[in-house]
């Protein structure tokens, strides 16, 4: 039986393994240092900036999926939630677990007064139909939104130039 629940500190090692699995699956190899899992533990288990829900296989006593979210504020909408990452192990997919994770995220976000859920996905992501079932809108198409990232090296360079 799969149980959806909020993550706690005892989940961090399993969560770390799932995140590593997702990174390898997506062929995302972080530059210089990667993910600091001590920071992840503090962020997930002791922060009001973030929350994480997990899917636990109670029979196998292990985590099989997660949804990691952060809060943000849109000046034209108010409080929002950012779905930073959702992942379900391959052999547990197409069993409704992702839908249950999203539903849990949405309930949590409404309880916190959030007005909408935002997320990024790759152009070729096989999850696009999954999100479309929920009524997700591609703002790139409808409003021309583009997403930019300032990498860590650029941040350091800018700060160094200011000093």
TrEMBL record:
<dbReference type="Pfam" id="PF00583">
    <property type="entry name" value="Acetyltransf_1"/>
</dbReference>
<dbReference type="InterPro" id="IPR000182">
    <property type="entry name" value="GNAT_dom"/>
</dbReference>
<comment type="similarity">
    <text>Belongs to the acetyltransferase family.</text>
</comment>
<protein>
    <submittedName>
        <fullName>Uncharacterized protein</fullName>
    </submittedName>
</protein>
<dbReference type="GO" id="GO:0008080">
    <property type="term" value="F:N-acetyltransferase activity"/>
</dbReference>
<dbReference type="InterPro" id="IPR051016">
    <property type="entry name" value="Diverse_Substrate_AcTransf"/>
</dbReference>
<dbReference type="InterPro" id="IPR016181">
    <property type="entry name" value="Acyl_CoA_acyltransferase"/>
</dbReference>
<keyword id="KW-0808">Transferase</keyword>
<keyword id="KW-0012">Acyltransferase</keyword>
């Amino acid at each position: 039986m799969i149980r959806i629940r909020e993550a706690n500190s005892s989940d961090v090692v399993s969560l770390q393994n799932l995140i590593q699995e997702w990174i390898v699956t997506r062929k995302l190899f972080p530059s210089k240092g990667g993910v600091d899992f001590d920071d992840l533990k503090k962020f997930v288990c002791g922060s009001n900036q973030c929350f994480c829900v997990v899917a636990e296989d109670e029979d196998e006593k292990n985590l099989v999926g997660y949804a990691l979210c952060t809060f943000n504020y849109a000046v034209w909408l108010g409080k929002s939630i950012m779905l930073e990452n959702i992942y379900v192990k391959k052999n547990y997919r197409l069993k409704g677990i992702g839908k249950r994770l999203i539903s849990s995220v949405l309930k949590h976000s409404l309880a916190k007064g959030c007005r909408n859920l935002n997320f990024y996905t790759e152009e070729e992501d096989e999850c696009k139909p999954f999100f479309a079932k929920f009524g997700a809108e591609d703002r790139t198409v409808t409003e021309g939104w583009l997403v930019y990232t300032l990498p860590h090296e650029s941040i350091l360079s800018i700060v160094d130039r200011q000093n």
